[in-house]
């Protein structure tokens, strides 16, 4: 019977991949990135990691796992993480939160912040940069803030490949298709022509944002305390106790009354007492 099962697995997959391998991948990803992979993601894991086995010249997942756990496998762990993160994002994703930022949070800060003082924002889990650049556009567009608020944005992500893309700030046309032509005209430069043209973020926006690779499970930036933290559509990948720890660390990294923006399906409710609800998936440090 095990022989039959073994043959079926080999027929189905190009690389030998067992349930134990899948469980070992889940365990390792949780250990290195805090990410809890759903038990139903077995096929997805195969699809994402098969190309890494090809790149490493391996024919089975158990050998790939051995490599990842070895001293020589350190560089491969970065590829392993990059292959398994979900980077879905977009400019002005959940637009009502950007309205809240423009109409409430930034004007309030502009009225309060003394000149010469930075207003510090952290986009934690920034993916390919659309989120921090959207924040930067709001900061540059919103009238009371434009002149009175000196915004600085730290944007970090665990996935080194998206951080590199974000830093370059080049986007294909479809990524900016939902932006108004006024915004595109003001904040992007067309590079190249025809179907291959790309849109580069203007230096005036880029200069507000510093990108860095950072694993939220490790040490955090010293640039704090922050006035505002965006951590949207990131917490969903973590289990309850990891979320609780992160909320407490966010509270420690925020000024009193500082804001935390989460994804629309994420909440601090039942997880942490450090924050009070303030707006649409927006919380304030108590
Ligand atoms: C779905 S994207 C969300 C992007 C953006 N915040 C948004 O809402 O559009 C989630 C991001 O979280 C990052 N991420 C996952 N685990 C992380 C960790 N332990 N440390 C830092 N970033 C992490 C992923 O690499 C991914 O780019």
Number of separate domains? 2
User: What CATH architecture label of the largest domain applies?
Assistant: 3-Layer(aba) Sandwich
Measured on Cα atoms, how large is the radius of gyration? Answer: 21 Å
Overall CATH class of the largest domain: Alpha Beta
Quickly count the helices. Answer: 12
Q: Quick one: overall form?
A: globular
Number of strands: 10
Structural class: alpha/beta
Reported by name, the CATH topology of the largest domain is: Rossmann fold
Low-confidence stretches: 6-10
Bound molecules: S-adenosylmethionine
- Main β-sheet: number of strands, strand sense, barrel status? 7 strands, mixed
Helix-residue proportion: 40-55%
Tell me the CATH superfamily of the largest domain: Vaccinia Virus protein VP39
How far from one another are the termini?
60 Å
Order of helices and strands: HHHHHHEHHEHEHEEHEEHEEE
Percentage of residues in strands: 15-25%
Overall mean confidence score, pLDDT: 93
User: Order of strands in the sheet with the most strands?
Assistant: 6-2-1-7-8-10-9
Keywords:
3-stranded antiparallel sheet; Rossmann fold; 10 strands; alpha/beta; 2 domains; 286 residues; binds S-adenosylmethionine
Describe it.
The protein has 286 residues and is an alpha/beta fold. It has two domains: 2-84, Chemotaxis Receptor Methyltransferase Cher, domain 1 (Orthogonal Bundle); 95-285, Rossmann fold. It is built from twelve helices and ten strands. The chain has helices at 2-12, 19-33, 42-56, 61-69, 74-84, 95-112, 130-141, 143-148, 160-168, 181-187, 203-206, 240-253; strands spanning 118-124, 150-157, 170-172, 188-191, 198-201, 209-213, 226-231, 254-262, 275-279, 282-285. The chain has a seven-stranded mixed β-sheet, with helices on both faces. The longest helix is centred in the middle third of the chain and has 18 residues, at 95-112. The chain is globular, with a radius of gyration of 21 Å. Mean pLDDT is 93; it is low at 6-10. Bound molecules: S-adenosylmethionine. S-adenosylmethionine binds next to loops. Residues 33-35, 85-89, 93, 125-127, 131, 157-159, 162, 215-217, 232-234, 237, 263 line the site of S-adenosylmethionine.
